[in-house]
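Sanity check

After download, print the first record. It should look like this:
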Amino acid sequence: MTMTATLAPVERALNIFTEVRQGEAASALMLALNIFLILTAYYILKPVREALILSGSGGAEIKSYVAAGQTLLLLGAVPLYAWFAGRHDRRSLINRVTLFFALCLAAFYFLAIAGAPIAIAFYLWVGIFNLMVPAQFWAFANDIYTPEAGKRLFVIVAFGASSGAVFGSFLAGHLIEPVGIYQLLLVSAGVLLASLLLTNLIDSRERKPSIGPRAGSEAEAPLGRNGAFQLVLKNRYLLLIALLMLFLNWVNTTGEYILGRTVKEAAAALLAADPDLAPNEETFIGHFYADFFTVVNIAGLLLQLFVVSRVLKYLGVRTAIFILPLIALGGYLVAAFYPLLAMVRWVKTAENATDYSLQNTVRQVLFLPTTREQKYKAKQAIDTFFVRSGDVLSAALVFAGTTLFALSTAQFAMINILLVCVWLLLAFMVGREHRRLVS
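Expected structure tokens:
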């Protein structure tokens, strides 16, 4: 009897997307549902966050300043998380941290209906939540799987994240009017608590010696007393991943500025050419981004389902890590010489769809050969502080480029090309260290 013949129907079905072996389907699907719920909870909160910050005094300007302030908060939040993780086992850590965030949502709800000015505090809090809770989930998934199994099964788990983002946005859009903007905070808290119940179910299942590769006392042990930033800075592999994520986000966020600037210029040109026939600027921009996000999300889901597992299986992690920067390099070369809206749109579509699918999966796979302490602590520092630092550097670049040097759209694209060259070098170094660790 062949191995395929002994697989359950659900395992044979999942083999369309990636290699799933006997007994692996249940945990993979439960983890996918887990991150689906976490991302659903976050995307329910996004319209609440935008409504509160943009409707208050200061509007978009305050929003940009508060976004930079999140990086400063992470300098305190990440070491605090590492200190807390060093004193608790896996289950206790996840339970307490997730319950804290759920209780915060209830507190924000009562403050909001009491008329308290929560806009800035809530915007900062959502930024921390969006980074720390998914990073904690991926540390948990890394802790469950061996490097070999994780490389195969993270394809399914990451699909749960992608679909959760889509469903959360859909759900929020349909609940705002009948439920109310503030009540969405309680809806999100309920979804988050449901994800926590599922986490505990998965944890109990994986501790069974017949199922979990990391069962028993290892999962119940505290995670060590090293600091998060200390773990990153003293380990070459982790430091290279941190710098890789910083440059990735720096390039991507600057690319978002290039796209936004090109859209605005196209809308202004359309109005100037024919003010009577053209839609107003807000309508043009709104329709553009609605179509853009739809295409990106659909492309990302299709890549996650049918391409990512094949890339990881046949090309390997050390080749897959080059694909996104090479796409970005080619895209910004096009944008530098042809900064037209149609060109820039498809550059960012390809970049974002690959980032949300292949690159996101590769990023999680890179942590599989690390220690448990590094998974929970160093990953928090990298997925929060270093990622957000890329946003800050991009904001500084845009500020200098627009106020001091009056750079054109094409010149911003050329700067991104230089940044991508550094990104490619870091990808090579990370791949070399990954090969050394795995072997």
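If your output differs, re-run the checksum step. Summary of this record's structure: The longest helix spans residues 236-273.
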